[in-house]
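seq as requested:
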Amino acid sequence: MNLYRLFRYRLIAVPVLSFILSCSIKPAASNYVDLVNPLIGTAPSTTISALQHGEDEKENNAQVVPYVTVPFGMTNWTPQTKATETKCVAPYYYTDTKISGFRGSHWLSGSCVQDYGSMTIMPITGKLKCQADDRASSFSHDTEKTTPYNYNVTLADYKIDVNMTATKRCGLFQFIFENSGEAHIIVNPNSDEGQGFIQINAEKNEIIGYNPVHKIYQGWGDKAGFSGYFVVQLSKSSGKFGVYQNEKILQGNTEIANLENIGAYISFDVEKGETIEAKIGTSFTSIEQARKNLAAETKDLDFEEAKENLKNIWENLLSKVQVEGTNKDDKVKFYTAMYHSYLQPRTFNDVDGTYVSFNGATKLMNSGKDDYFTDFSMWDIYRSSLPLFNMLTPKVNGQMMKSLFSMAEQGGWMPIFPCWNSYTSAMIGDHSVAAIADAYMKNNIEISDKEYSYLIQNAFKLPANHADYVNGKGRRGLTSYLKYGYIPLEDEVLESFHKGEQVSRTLEYAFDDFALSQIAAKRGDTLHARLLKKRALNYENVYSVADSTVRGRFADGTFTKDFDKFIRKPYITEGTPYQYTWYVPQDIKGLMNLMGGEDGFNANLDRFHAAKQYWHGNEPGHQIPFLYNYSGQAWKTQELVTQIMKTEYSNDVGGLSGNDDAGQMSAWYVFAALGFYPVSPSVPQYVISGPHFDKITLSLENGKTLVINAKGASSGNNYIQKIKFNGVEYDKTYLDHFSIMKGGILDFEMGNQPNKSWGTAKESKPFSLSN
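struct tokens:
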């Protein structure tokens, strides 16, 4: 790169970066980004627990796609093998054999929601074929090259080589035509509702359009009040163009709207080896804002520079954690997991800060110098994804928490599971409070009196207007939860996408109450701290001592007679009563007491694993492998975590054990590889399981460095013999967050046999409410 291009590259690259990166861009030396394999998880899971516990292909697929994107990008770019925005259908599956386009996607990575506001571009040669199934081309995975910064494939039917890269809000494409002749570039909004708009301006070599957003996952299909807008600019002009609807081609027409299967095309005569480039700007605000985003991020930026920019953005992020060891496959798994962890939440604002207001898009707002984020898969990511951001990239995590408070200010209530920049009642719990508490207790954010009032409101009140409640404001089933201390089976929670699930809701509210009590105590609100701390023990109200598990309970206090702890029940979310029994992250000691102490707890947990009840493919059990640290058998945690990392993650396309859910499944692996895990977010501790690389260097955002040495860990020595922190022997089974953030040297002596006496002292065990 010559000096002029280097200077121009820096000027272009720096504004695109968010707070997740340092402002200096340096050429990558180690290329951690090239260890990422975006195809991992794009095929049905082949892991042990997925095959045993997943009920269908939706649960047994990671639902990730090979995104080319900036971390937390507004629009993510992927090859398209499924031409729909249907719930639980990802845009790309490895097992498909044809590509029908390249999508500017807002699919929540690893989820079972639906894509929204998306558009697709597709180059073809020969006869004009506009509909997705008709134009789709076969391709070979042998010619498919996937990285976070570039996707490359040959469309075999058309002999077109496609390259794709991205900025935060834009996509850039190269279409290289192997043969001369007639070629076409087709663009369409992906509206399954027969809506949308598209228009051609041949003089500007431009196609514009939009795709209205619907909240399909709710099950109601309500309009979200905004659209996905796009502006496509092509490098070659042509006087041959038209629009289409279904099989009807309207040659020479310049626009079409609000019909099913619509789109536009421009036709070209191409020479052998000719390249046509496309730049696509996107926005959730307007076509004009999409054009502004395109100009701000791609003006005078050629494809190779854009690709290099994006490569360095990912390299700077991934190199915050440098792992060393003998097993390259584990490095691929690790850096792919980091990549998946940093795909969502989604940047929602335009380059100038503009975004449409939360829950209805009735106003234009501005986020100023910060970004505003949406698409929080909150039931999943509060567990370890957001804690990972709190540790590695706390500034951007602070912006995410600020976004949640902005939603509350604009809509009147804290959101439960905010997607499509809207309230939803999609999942259970009230985990925005847990996410905020984790950031607050780690001193990453401050909370104003007004912001605190929204958290308290969610915990103690419901909307006066029932329509607001139906549409996702307030906790589901709160009235009965406050009355009984649990949600009885009579309360079916019909105003929710997930109906029933009363026991799981009770357990999760108890944890949320604990997290909020942490905030209240830190703020000096002793009244609410005391009330919420008491409510944090509500898990006891759905625990059956006779069964040593949680169980459905009626309003009169009796437990349901129909009971088998090994079978899924309607009062449990996506699992069995036995699996949900261990969801008491705030008070493992209290749960232990209910089971008769450490011996009873360990025996029950042993039986649970012996029965093969542990299901890594779903989030409510992600803390379970770490619980032996609380009960004097930390070596079993080390053994379990090692086993899960080996059997539930691989470098194959089926190498994730369930829905990745916006990176939660992957963030678990990142923490496990580091050797510690945030069992109870809002408690600034990480429960130790032992590193899985010989040396790990964390470059923290505050300028400090933490070096973790664990000689032999990458080659099978996965049992902790002893630990030293900055040269001083360390015998606790947890790490303090603030100690990590100060940096230093953490030395693990590892072995191939367990040290059963390590971490057994009472004072060595992690926090529990009942301690």
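The mean pLDDT is 94.
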